[in-house]
Amino acid sequence: SSLVKSVDENGSVAMVKIKTQSNQGPLGGFDNDVLTVLLTMAHEQKDHNLKNKFEQNGYRVYYTHYEICRRLKLHMGSAGHVSEAIEKIASQNLTLNNFAYTSSDKKAVRKDESTKIILKKGKVSLADGTKETDEYTSYFYIEFDNFVVRNLYNDYVSVLNSNKYLALSTGPCRRIFVFLSSKRKIFGERFA
């Protein structure tokens, strides 16, 4: 779990505690890589999502297994691993504990929410006139929870440069990059 706290110049406090939990266990390095690619794609598909946000519960990201493998610099034989990672991400329960204290009127508000990172997922089959496309060229979608993508679109969380992230070796280097990128808003663009 992680805790984010901010205090403004008037002494008002806002905090959110985020915890993920799943019967499939915590997300591993590869799962986080796939999630980073999907969040990058959500940011790239921002205009489409904002135009269609009333048609669905969350924000949809359309992808192919080929595209995710390409971005991760993997062979297409890894498409099954990508699908497994998306299943694991979809299994993650997201618990949010929000707390806000306004110094001017001395009121505190607490709001607890439970949701999923991915609300639903599906497959869009396209016919080329003669036959269905195969599994690797079929389009898939996931629908992120509004909380996740709203915070991404409103710059409450830092958007990672996925090319820089994926250029690093897996593990500690990538986690340090994520941490440094989270401080970019405070310290400026050159920080990360």
**How many H/I helices?**
8
Assembly classification: single chain
Note poorly predicted spans: none
Strand count: 7
Report the end-to-end length measured between terminal Cα atoms: 23 Å
The gross shape turns out to be: globular
Kindly provide the radius of gyration, computed on alpha-carbon positions and rounded to a whole number of angstroms. Answer: 18 Å
Instruction: Name the beta content range.
Output: 25-35%
Strand order of the largest sheet: 1-2-4-5
Order of helices and strands: EEHHEHHEEEEHHHH
**Given the helix and strand composition, which structural class is it?**
alpha+beta
**Helix-residue proportion:** 25-40%
Give the averaged pLDDT, no decimals.
78
Main beta-sheet strand count, sense and barrel state? 4 strands, antiparallel
Short note summarizing the structure:
With 192 residues, this protein is an alpha+beta fold.
Walk me through what this model shows:
The protein is α+β, with helices and mostly antiparallel strands. The protein has helices at 29-44, 46-51, 65-71, 79-90, 146-153, 162-167, 172-182, 184-187, and strands at 2-7, 13-21, 59-63, 93-102, 107-116, 118-124, 139-144. The strands form two sheets. It has a four-stranded antiparallel β-sheet with strand order 1-2-4-5, with no helix packed on it. A three-stranded antiparallel β-sheet has the order 3-7-6. A hairpin with a 4-residue loop joins strand 4 and strand 5 (107-116). Helix 1 packs across helix 4. It starts with a strand and ends in a 5-residue tail after the last helix.
